[in-house]
């Protein structure tokens, strides 16, 4: 699964308030060429939304974000998510996902947290909150000592179309997470065509880095 994630430079970070929006949202992403999604566990609708996307679009890489409790972790595994993410690094959560053979990407923002992740066999970590934690310059310096060990990052928080390639250009960055691809307001207003257009724009932008 990690290899599959590494092929996808942009991961949409989604907050769903109404589970009925799950399928049309996923369809909007797919129409834009994006077959990966991170649905955060911040709302009561998240478990049903994850289940509905899993059933309707099995071809999507289904991620669950903001997994911060044991109940949320169990829900993710029961749903059959492709991967999980969290804003922080909880050893119990990491171990639970590993025991269930499911990729987990915990959040870090210090060298000590990176080394804690390495000790647990992790080499893909979420740099969060990227913008508030020092942005591109911080990640460039933070990640450099660990790059030879194969550590890679998915910065999330404060990213947008204008700065996404600054992150993707860093050798230690494999993917980025972005909430601007489908905002809560756009989802609530069912602006599916707008979301599809934003996805296409982001993927075209990301392609510039590898061109």
UniProtKB/TrEMBL annotation:
ATP-binding keyword on record: no
EC primary class: lyase
InterPro entries named in the record: Aldlse_KDPG_KHG, Aldolase_TIM, KDPG/KHG_AS_2
Any one GO molecular function term: 2-dehydro-3-deoxy-phosphogluconate aldolase activity
Domain of life, source organism: Bacteria
Record's keyword annotation contains Lyase: yes
Enzyme nomenclature, EC number: 4.1.2.14, 4.1.3.16
Pfam families: Aldolase
Keywords, alphabetical: Carbohydrate metabolism, Lyase
Associated pathway: Carbohydrate acid metabolism
Subunit and partners: Homotrimer.
Entry-linked PANTHER family: 2-DEHYDRO-3-DEOXY-6-PHOSPHOGALACTONATE ALDOLASE-RELATED, 2-KETO-3-DEOXY-6-PHOSPHOGLUCONATE ALDOLASE
Family (UniProt): Belongs to the KHG/KDPG aldolase family.
Protein name per its UniProtKB record: Bifunctional 4-hydroxy-2-oxoglutarate aldolase/2-dehydro-3-deoxy-phosphogluconate aldolase
Species of provenance: Pontiella agarivorans
């Amino acid at each position: 699964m990690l290899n599959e994630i590494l092929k996808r430079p942009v991961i949409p970070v989604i907050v769903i308030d109404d589970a009925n929006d799950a399928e049309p949202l996923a369809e909007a992403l797919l129409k834009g060429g994006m077959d990966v999604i991170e649905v955060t566990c911040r709302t009561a609708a998240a478990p049903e939304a994850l289940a509905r996307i899993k059933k309707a679009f099995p071809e999507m890489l289904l991620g669950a974000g903001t997994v911060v409790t044991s109940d949320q972790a169990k829900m993710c595994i029961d749903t059959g998510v492709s991967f999980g993410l969290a804003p922080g690094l909880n050893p119990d959560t990491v171990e639970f996902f590993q025991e269930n053979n499911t990729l987990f990407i915990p959040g870090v923002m210090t060298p000590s947290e990176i080394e804690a992740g390495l000790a647990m066999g992790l080499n893909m970590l979420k740099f969060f909150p990227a913008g508030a934690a020092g942005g591109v310059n911080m990640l460039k310096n933070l990640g450099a000592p660990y790059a030879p060990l194969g550590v890679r990052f998915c910065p999330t928080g404060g990213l947008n179309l204008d700065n996404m390639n600054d992150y993707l250009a860093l050798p230690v960055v494999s993917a980025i997470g972005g909430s601007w691809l489908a905002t809560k307001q756009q989802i609530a207003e069912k602006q599916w065509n707008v979301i599809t257009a934003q996805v296409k724009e982001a993927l075209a932008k990301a392609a510039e880095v590898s061109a």
